[in-house]
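Provenance and format

Records in this collection were gathered into a single text stream. Each protein contributes a sequence line and a token line. The two records reproduced below are adjacent in the stream.
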Amino acid sequence: MTNTPDKNRTKRPVRPRHPQTPLQRWLRKSTRPGLWVAATLLGFTLLFSLLTFALPKRSFSERENRKLEDAPALSAAALADGSFARAAERWFADHFFSRDFWMTLQLHFLSVLGEKENGGVWLGKDDSLFLIPQRPDEAALARNLTAMDAFAASHGNINTYAAVIPNAFTVQPDRLPDFAPAPDQTAQLRAVAEKLPHIVFLDVTQALRDAADQYLFYRTDHHWTSLGAYTAFTAMAPEMGIDTPVTEYEIFPVSSAFYGTLAAKSGRFGRPDTVDIYLPETDVIYNVTYTDTLEKSASLYDREALQGTDHYAVFFGGNYPRVDINTTARTGRRLLLFKDSYANCMMQFLYPYFDEIVMIDPRYYYENAEPLLRQHGITDVLYLYNCDTFLNDSSLADVLTPPLSTAELDLNEVG
């Protein structure tokens, strides 16, 4: 039987072949498609690197609230010891093209992957951020506690108090990411109190926890809010002999666009924070003296700070070695305050009850505190720190410990 073609079968049209370019022929013959992925990535890297060098550079990152790395100076010595390469790497990382975009993209990837932290910050719930606490410096802590208690014991006629404020993750643990390994600050605070038998320890933890559903700490910054400070003050006042504290305040929101240090560290910029100031309804008038510059002010607040990125600096404009506040309270009480930045916010509640407040920040104050007691007729001493800072402070004992006498120095040299 002879096969005959089916006359009803439709013939496919023959498409003419166009000559291929060398690139197309190379592509068809390539057996390594991964090379194209690598080539594409290399191309983007080269492009972004060229843009990094070509575009204008910033000296300061508003988003991260820090100075960016300067271009390194080239020298034979820097090349030999490797410092030029390390500095160049930091410069390139700081000025890479669209750095803020890549940081945000990285954070999104981390969130998708279920990461709970970035940049030393816990990524909490409800847009809350928490600074991951440091491991306590046990040696420095023991030295500070010994110096504090000895200072109080040697001045038994002075009322001495210590308020170590628990951090946000202790007061509002429900906002932490699941299974975040937060330390037990309540146990740490109990241990601190036991080492200070000559000091009245003002534990405000429960007062803050009772108000934990309120706006006690900034979401994007490591400080407490004015409401947090006021909540602690109401718990501290009776134990400090402030029997009739002011109960009426005018509250003014001075910023509704505050992104703090935790947002800068983590790269998460969710809802901005609001900064409020509280003006007590009192007839007490005060003035402020910044002793390092002798600058005087009639206000606790620095509104120029609101033009920058750190809106918490509206309180005094930031931290200074020593600040004196003189008032018309006429209570006969004069307070020496050893502090970190948490105390800046507390001053709007404390000043009506003391004729004078001498604020010392031991991180920047290098003189001995003993002479201040006599010079200012100090009646009360208060230590006010946040817990994480206090457990790692290495400067407080130096301010409290009297310098050695000439005879003691001679004995040490002989020994």
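Adjacent record:
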Amino acid sequence: MDLMQKLEILSDAAKYDAACTSSGVDRGGQKGGIGNCVKAGLCHSFAADGRCISLLKVLMTNRCIYNCKYCVNRVTNDTPRTAFTPRELADLTIQFYRRNYIEGLFLSSGIQRSPNYTCEQMLETLELLRGEYRFGGYIHVKAIPGADQELIERLGLLADRMSVNIELPSQKSLTLLAPNKTKESILKPMDFISRGIQQGRELVKYTGAPRFVPAGQSTQMIIGATPDTDYQILRLTQGLYRKYGLKRVFFSAYMPVQEDSLLPSLDTKPPLLREHRLYQADWLLRFYGFEAGELLDETHQSFHPLVDPKANWAINHMEQFPIEVNTAPYELLLRVPGIGVKSAKRILAARRSGQLDFAALKRLGVVLKRARFFLLCQGKLMEGVKATPEGVLRGLISQKDLELARLPQDAPEQLSLFERQPNQEDTMQCLTGQI
């Protein structure tokens, strides 16, 4: 099989891995090397389904000894199999980078032969890039559960970011759909990477000390393949952030690719709106001071389809509103729909100079169409506002939310290296250096 065919198969097989994230690390170019890394980079180009496409995102191989029922690369699936050699993948990455088609590499893999063998192949690729090619660009690599810690440590000293996919939200679901994987085998390397990152931060004061996974680690879980609820998923997400200090938890709406009695049928639409609501809730956990147990609970385990999680929380806690904008603390301002982190900080700064009214709030960037139900300015509601439960709900349902709820939930397609328009010249030979 030639390199072109390998690239087509292994880039397509990697499209279910989420990688839409900034690099999170600065690394200047070095004399004699190639490439650099900017902390705010990598997020300027996205596929139609919202996933970042500025990385060369491929698998080392789609050969796999595991039989995860939800995975297109499962050992029992009849699909073309191939693998890059470390040299092939390193050369391909550098050729793409020199042509300014990518800013870095996202590398995952099926489990070929054993976790250690697979990890060794990935490690050899990174050693070629960082050593022989002196590549200073961004590299995100998936850690292989079950591989020796020594191998994971060596990977972490070469990669910018690492991730260990949690895959499914519970051990019960893993046992059912991924019998070769356990919660322990996934959390063990996650814990090792977390401790390595913390130790690396302590060593950074020593000049020349190697940096271990400087951009942190992330994980990904599949949404909709199992009966796990939004409440269970959000509690797990919060626990992962707190225990392992993750940079991001990514959610991936399940897209049926396999026929199996334990999985949703092939005509099931991916739960894209549910994925969207989980990302909104994740933002509230990380930047707005919310707890998972505040957004959902045992009696309400799913998000409202027509309003975002923050608005839904506010509707369910009307006893806390309205609040006086001129005296409310920052933490409470952040809980008002229509007030974000930036506008809350602007309110704090502006009210030091005098009393704010609704016109001033609008100038500060507050979305009054949403916030007006929850705020008092100098002891008064906005003129004409009646904060009845029905009126508040109608006011908080945005046109965007309605459009999201009405969207056909067809499986999105990641932008492919091999998509061609009518009469479009085939450029892939040029990309791989064959022209």
